[in-house]
């Protein structure tokens, strides 16, 4: 059953067009769990900086999602838990002693300034991404602020307070009969699995480290119960798994699951703690090995939402998410990092790469063969994808967009509103001045001549800064050099010599 596949160089098809909606809120990097805490939302800002400086923003529609409201959060979480999150803060913590124990808030999940706003940004991005997929406005939605897969219905867990993935999947289920959730974080996606453990509308597949490792769930025999039996797939792995081994497990399993389950939408959690050298992880994946999973799932051309997740070595997470954003846009980014505001974080090599270490791979072929055999046997217990009864789909909430950006005054400004500019995509066949590699050189055709002249644009002060107003008027009357032929230019030069 298990066959070791060769790990080839990643390939993309530039002719394959994908409409991508990328969600980012500039405030996300302002939140901090506290000094010494391994979870740092700042890594999302670092990844965004790389994405922008590599020029990927030209290929995607960029959105700042409306933060999730209390009402939206309560589609999954309990009212009292969300009410607690909205009211608690570092200043009034002593008033919530009982609730802290009840809702598991404390060491791993501390209370920090802006906690509820942080949850709102995370949940809003995933819900809005799902809504755009539902309306057919995009093929892929990206929300790196999401992916908080440990949060439960009424308790925080594993640095996660709000389960944005479950909220996003609930939104997808309004339009899609079957949703597949894939998790490549080093930790088991227990919160999402638990939420959909008894239903066949969502299939969860988690590839994670198992055995004396947080959260301690995700055994091979956990397959779901009741109507959801066989719709939870767990792939428990051991320390040190490398690119080729991971690929040899991931690709055949995902192919089999998609062939059998036939999902109409996929949610992919791409936590960066499965990368080599992570502070809390124990896998040995390179950037290419991690990105191969995203590239493989994308190849099925099923509407997909990509969310973030874990990842505690910030520079590696930022590199990988930027590289994967390139793959989703069918671009392989060059390894030389562009200069950005966090450039010094990437020393000493300043390269877009996460290399594997010489860690020993404890996943033997016999062990992996046993896992694959067991999972595929379970899948074959039910031979067809589950059907769904016809139901009335609730109406979508009114899309007000970014109200501040869409005021008449904002749209009347030069270039339109910021929101309108973010939604523009640069087509492959368009040419923009800033793309010119010759730093301002441009080709101009000269009338009545068989040659083209390469001309450097002349840097001049604006007319209003001229020393004399009359000089400025005269300057306007001089014909542009670009309309003169080469012979006329030579003739003027000769006349100038004669005058001198």
From TrEMBL:
Name the major location. nucleus
Q: Tell me, what is an example of a GO biological process annotation in this record? A: heterochromatin formation
Q: Does the keyword Kinase apply?
A: no
Top EC group: hydrolase
Entry superkingdom: Eukaryota
Under catalytic activity, the entry for this protein gives:
N(6)-acetyl-L-lysyl-[histone] + H2O = L-lysyl-[histone] + acetate
Localization per record: Nucleus
**Positions of the Histone deacetylase domain:** 37-322
Is Transmembrane one of the keywords UniProt gives this record?
Answer: no
Q: Which GO terms describe its molecular function?
A: histone deacetylase activity, hydrolytic mechanism; metal ion binding
PANTHER family, per the entry: HISTONE DEACETYLASE HDAC1, HISTONE DEACETYLASE HDAC1-RELATED
* Similarity section: Belongs to the histone deacetylase family. HD Type 1 subfamily.
What's the name of the protein?
Histone deacetylase
What broad taxonomic lineage does this protein's source fall under? Answer: Eukaryota, Fungi, Dikarya, Ascomycota, Saccharomycotina
């Amino acid at each position: 059953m298990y066959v070791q596949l060769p790990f080839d160089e990643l390939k993309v098809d530039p002719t394959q067009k994908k409409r991508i909606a990328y969600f980012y809120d500039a405030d996300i990097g302002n939140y901090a769990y506290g000094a010494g805490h391994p979870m740092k939302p700042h890594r999302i800002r670092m990844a965004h900086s790389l994405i922008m400086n590599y020029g990927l923003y030209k290929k995607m529609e960029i959105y700042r999602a409306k933060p999730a409201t209390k009402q939206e959060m309560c589609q999954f979480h309990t009212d009292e838990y969300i009410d607690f999150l909205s009211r608690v803060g570092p200043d009034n913590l002593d008033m919530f002693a009982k609730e802290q124990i009840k809702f598991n808030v404390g060491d791993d999940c501390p209370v920090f300034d802006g906690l509820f706003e942080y949850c709102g940004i995370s949940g809003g991005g995933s819900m809005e991404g799902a809504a755009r997929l539902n309306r057919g406005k995009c093929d892929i939605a990206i929300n790196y602020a999401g992916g908080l897969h440990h949060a439960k219905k009424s308790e925080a867990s594993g640095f996660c307070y709000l389960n944005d993935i479950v909220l996003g999947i609930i939104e997808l289920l309004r339009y899609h009969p079957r949703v597949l959730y894939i998790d490549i974080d080093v930790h088991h996606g227990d919160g999402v699995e638990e939420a959909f453990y008894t239903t066949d509308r969502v299939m969860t597949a988690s590839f994670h480290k198992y055995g004396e490792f947080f959260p301690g769930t995700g055994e091979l025999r956990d397959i779901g119960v009741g109507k959801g039996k066989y719709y939870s797939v767990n792939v428990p792995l051991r320390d040190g798994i490398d690119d080729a081994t991971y690929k040899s497990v991931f690709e055949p399993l995902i192919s089999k699951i998609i062939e059998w389950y036939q999902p109409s939408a996929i949610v992919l959690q791409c936590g960066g703690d499965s990368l080599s050298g992570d502070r809390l992880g124990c896998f040995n994946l390179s950037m290419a090995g991690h990105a191969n999973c995203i590239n493989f799932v994308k190849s099925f051309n099923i509407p997909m939402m990509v969310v973030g997740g874990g990842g505690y070595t910030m520079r590696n997470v930022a590199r990988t998410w930027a590289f994967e954003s390139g793959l989703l846009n069918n671009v392989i980014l060059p390894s030389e990092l562009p200069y950005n505001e966090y450039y010094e974080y990437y020393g000493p090599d300043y390269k877009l790469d996460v290399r594997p270490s010489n860690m020993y791979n404890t996943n033997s072929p016999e062990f992996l063969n046993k896992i694959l055999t067991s999972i595929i046997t379970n899948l074959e217990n039910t031979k067809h994808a589950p059907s769904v009864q016809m139901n009335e789909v609730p109406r979508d909430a009114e899309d007000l967009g970014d109200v501040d950006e869409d005021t008449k005054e904002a749209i009347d400004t030069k270039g339109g509103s910021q929101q309108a500019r973010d939604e523009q995509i640069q087509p492959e066949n368009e040419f923009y001045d800033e793309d010119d590699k010759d730093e301002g050189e441009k080709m101009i055709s000269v009338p009545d001549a068989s040659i083209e002249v390469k001309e450097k644009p002349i840097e001049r002060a604006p007319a209003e800064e001229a020393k004399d107003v009359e000089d400025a008027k005269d300057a306007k009357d001089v014909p542009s050099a670009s309309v003169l032929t080469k012979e006329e230019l030579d003739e003027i030069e000769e006349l100038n010599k004669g005058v001198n």
